[in-house]
Write a structure and sequence with these properties.
alpha/beta, single chain, binds ligand L4CXMVQC, about 260 residues, eight-stranded mixed sheet, about 45% helix, Rossmann fold
Length: about 260
């Protein structure tokens, strides 16, 4: 557990794995903290240097007042990597974390060796949808929308109150800062990374979950079609967060992609 003040905000992060190995940076989704990557990280940490961090307004990182711009999240990650003296990294992002990854590649191309874009897109949702979510969170709290959100995060088989993991992730979501959650909804509402995706020249792996209700496979396929040479993999029996529901498959795809790209 470590903290750094970068870009005017205190971020929570953790470093794992051998220092001399290629660096993998993990960026999490809306309403979660970096523990969503724990099972994937455990499968990779013997062979890679891992950076896990909580984005602004999530987990133990500081929450500035809403709204946020995607550039805030992008600049935070670039500043954290600079703070850690990391010159090159593979950025692995899920959902809004995948948009942050695309943004970092556009803002600081030299920093990015390859990208893994899991359950994400160049543009997610509509202004109407995000404004509705912001209003609900600000007026009634995250708990008021949590049940609906978890149905998109996980498959029906996982989404059961008798599953302790489901209950745990419900707690993770409802305990996020309202400013952090709604602020990041505003960032998602205003972000269109179509041009950034089209300009990517690094190796890219796109991952979709066959039962993802937030960024369905067709949307991830559309993202992959914008990126020259991108590889697309669809994980079965997974919703929006295959890193939680299918960690072995997710880590296996990351490992084989890095191997193919000559990293590691
Ligand atoms: O998960 C994200 O980072 C944004 C996409 C989304 O809205 C997922 C959800 O339904 O919470």
């Amino acid at each position: 557990m470590a903290f750094a003040r970068v870009n005017g905000i205190v971020l929570h992060y953790e470093l794992r794995g051998p220092e001399e190995r290629p660096v993998l940076v993990f960026s999490n989704s809306l309403g979660t903290d970096f523990r969503i990557w724990n099972k994937v990280a455990a499968l990779l940490e013997d062979d890679f240097r891992l950076v896990l961090y909580d984005k602004r307004g999530h987990g133990l990182s500081e929450a500035s007042p809403q709204p946020y711009a995607m550039a805030d999240h992008v600049n935070d990650l670039v500043a954290l990597l600079d703070h850690l003296s990391i010159a090159q990294a593979v950025i692995i992002g899920v959902s809004v974390g995948g948009m942050i990854a695309q943004g970092v590649a556009a803002a600081r191309p030299g920093l990015v060796q390859a990208l893994v874009l899991s359950n994400t897109a160049h543009k997610i949702g509509t202004a109407e949808m995000w404004n509705g979510r912001i209003k609900a969170v600000n007026e009634q709290g995250i708990a008021s929308i949590a049940g609906t959100i978890l149905q998109r995060w996980f498959t029906p088989a996982y989404c059961k109150p008798e599953n302790p993991d489901y209950v745990g992730y419900h707690s993770m979501l409802t305990r996020q800062s309202a400013d952090g959650y709604a602020g990041t909804c505003a960032a998602l509402r205003d972000a269109d990374l179509t041009d950034a995706a089209k300009a990517l020249t690094v190796p890219v792996l796109c991952i979709a979950g066959d039962q993802d209700g937030s960024t369905p496979p067709d949307l991830v396929r559309e993202l992959a079609s914008l990126i020259s040479g991108a590889r697309l993999e669809i994980i079965e029996n997974a919703g929006h967060l295959p890193c939680i529901e299918q960690p072995e498959r997710t880590a296996g795809l990351i490992r084989s992609f890095l191997n193919q790209a000559g990293i590691g």
